[in-house]
């Protein structure tokens, strides 16, 4: 991809205790960004997953869908997610994001927050198949939502709150997933939808561990 695609990006970086975090604003060029949200909204096979939480099976407060290589199987809260085959524009977006990050991704978890009532609770993306120090690239489209982080082991470390604007790319690296939790809380004043595409490398099923 041409370097001038990224000429307008504005980066903000946080050197956190035990982790790295970077936010890139205006990531996609206007010609791609302006139609992308509606395309994803209509084309992805959105569903409301049922997960095991506190011993009960509950519907998560958002829609999601998992795409990726055939062997990029993901386990979360006792559920086995087998990816749907790659489709456009997820493949083209993967190429752009890989170019930006200098990393390879074999899967993407798409989340649709329909309004401010949809959310995701405190968690870390630290499942074994994500490897020793998972690197996650999250593209945000649509409504601005607040992304919050707190340290897992030291309550004296200040919490962080970041507004994730439309067309922004959040990069989470280092040992962030082992040392920090993150959430996207409810915001009742938010009426519109937000799509999050979180690109990841999942250890291929049947391969050796790190």
Protein model, in words:
This protein has about 210 residues and is mainly beta. The protein has one domain: Sandwich (Jelly Rolls). The protein is built from 3 helices and 15 strands. The strands form 4 sheets. Strands 1-2-13-10-15-8-5 form a 7-stranded antiparallel β-sheet. A hairpin with an 8-residue loop joins strand 11 and strand 12. The radius of gyration is 16 Å and the shape is globular. The chain starts with 9 loop residues before the first strand and ends in a 10-residue tail after the last strand.
Classified by CATH, the class is Mainly Beta
Question: What is the H-and-E element order?
Answer: EEHEEEEEHEEEEEEHEE
Q: Biggest sheet, in brief?
A: 7 strands, antiparallel
Strand order of the largest sheet: 1-2-13-10-15-8-5
Structural class of the helices, strands and pairings?
mainly beta
Mean pLDDT score: 92
Strand content: 35-45%
CATH architecture: Sandwich
Q: Which bin fits the share of residues in helices?
A: 10-25%
The radius of gyration over CA amounts to 16 Å
> Low-confidence parts, pLDDT < 50 over ≥5 residues?
1-8
Kindly give the count of domains. Answer: 1
Shape: globular
- CATH homologous superfamily caption: Alpha-ketoglutarate-dependent dioxygenase AlkB-like
End-to-end separation in angstroms reads 31 Å
CATH topology: Jelly Rolls
Quickly count the helices: 3
């Amino acid at each position: 991809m041409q370097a001038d695609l990224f000429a307008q990006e504005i980066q903000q970086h946080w050197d956190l205790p035990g982790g790295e975090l970077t936010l890139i604003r205006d990531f996609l060029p206007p010609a791609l960004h302006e139609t992308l949200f509606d395309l994803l909204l209509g084309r992805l096979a959105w569903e409301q997953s049922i997960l095991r939480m506190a011993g009960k099976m509950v519907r998560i407060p958002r829609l999601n869908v998992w795409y990726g290589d055939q062997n990029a199987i993901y386990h979360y809260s006792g559920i086995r997610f087998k990816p749907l085959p790659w489709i456009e524009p997820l493949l083209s977006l993967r190429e752009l994001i890989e170019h930006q990050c200098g990393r390879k991704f074999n899967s993407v978890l798409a989340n649709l927050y329909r309004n401010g009532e949809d959310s995701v609770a405190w968690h870390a993306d630290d499942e074994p198949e994500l490897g020793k120090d998972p690197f996650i690239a999250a593209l945000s489209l649509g409504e601005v939502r607040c992304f919050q982080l707190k340290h897992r082991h030291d309550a004296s470390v200040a919490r962080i709150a970041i507004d994730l604007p439309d067309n922004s790319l959040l990069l989470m690296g280092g040992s962030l997933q082992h040392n920090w939790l993150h959430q996207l809380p409810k915001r009742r004043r938010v009426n519109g939808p937000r799509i999050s595409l979180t690109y990841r490398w999942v250890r291929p099923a049947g391969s050796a561990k790190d």
